[in-house]
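Project standup — Tuesday

K.O.: blocked on the structure for the chain from last sprint. Re-posting the sequence here as requested.
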Amino acid sequence: MNKPQKKSGFYIDVTCPGCGGELELQRDFFSLECKYCGSVLRVVMPEAPPAYFVDCKQRKNEIRFKIDRHLKEQKLPLSRGELAIRKQYFPFWKVEAIQLQVTQQTVEHEPGHTNNPFTTNIDHGGNFQWGRALGSALTGPATSMPESKINVNLKPYMTTIAASPYMTGVPNSIGMRAEYIKIKPLTPEDGQEDADFIPVSANWNDVKAGLQKSIEMRGRAYNSGKYNRSELFRPEGSIVYFPFLIAEVGTSGGAYRFVFDGITGRILHMNEIEEVSDFPEETSIPSPDFGQINVKLHRCRNCGIDLPADKSSVYVCRNCSQAISIDQDYTLSNGVLIVKGGSMRSQADKLFPFWSFKLSPQIISRLVTPVSLDGPGDRLIVPGFHMGNFDAMRRLSRRITSVVQGYELSPILEYSPAFLPVTMGLNEAEIMAEAILYCSQLEKNPGVKASEFASQTEDVRLFYAPFHPENYFYVDSLDGAVTFEKNTVDIAE
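H.V.: unblocked you, prediction finished:
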């Protein structure tokens, strides 16, 4: 019998709207199938930052034992009398974004050796020593010449920041724990006995601005290059309420206050107090000022059949062939399209999704060299699927942007199993479009600012184009050109 796969990473509990069964959604949650009633469900995230909470794992009847053990280690008298304990949930902003890092690197090379044909690939295994002597004679003594190189890197960014005023013993961050601890969506009904939910006092806009400034300052401090810097693209925030236990107890030598981690039970802080406090009996309930996560039936709005239980921003219904856009905050111009002549040339073909943004030809010309005598086009193309690294995605974006003028697009008429999921939604694709434009300018002008080249889209399209695998690559099925490496995408053949 196969053992169930152990879950890892961030995941939350939800309830099936069909049968009420408890379900768990993991990190990249979007849709799933209910294991109780078989319904296909979709998670709808709110516009306002959502809030979650972490169940306290520590029992109050175990706290005195931990306190006495700690006092004994400190060679202090053991506790006596009544133990006052209060469970408190402190809010933390969990911030996720894409971090862009620009670094200026100085590379030294020897022009006499690298630029002279006589000195290319010499000294391999001790051979061709005559080449260096002849090259030096022709070019003169080699001199070291510095060359400045700009490196641009994009990577995921996550941090947690306290969202309430500082309290002695409570950390300013819960670090990466927000990525792997089990959390639940928070509702105003989640108030617990003997538990206080500390109000959120740090405004999301202020948190974003402060974090952006901090990232920029650290980017300049850690790197000495003139153009080195670090920026965040479109940070998204949510609130995570984390449990702490506040305990106060008296001893023969005085009274002490302890702060415990509500998950591990570790003592975070201890200090001496004048006397044990009387914690109020009333409890505070969570603030309702946050977005609510909803779970809906994942069905085609045209025919009502269940859509596939995979993560995608757009689906082509297998029953009515209708293209279904899940995101409600935008309208796709001309619907969802397919490259004409790319329906299915062979069974090996797969239809990859691409986002198409209309921009001015002047902006497009900064990104690619026109392949048409008519000049650059007016569409920036970004893959609608995730790739292994930003450089691979950027190369593919440039290549399709340069040839998209030759594509003839038509509406989708029938469903095909070759349609691949649109795993990169519109919001993320817009971030990528902005980053691609920004990076192309940084290579030419390292002093440029991102705001100068933010994408201004007039309309958005989504189209599918056919590619087929050959050896280690995916090949464009329309023109036979090798386009991108197979190992940069996670696609089952």
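K.O.: great, moving the ticket to review. The helical segments are 63-73, 111-114, 129-139, 204-222, 361-367, 390-403, 426-444. Residues 1-10, 112-135 have pLDDT under 50 and may be disordered.
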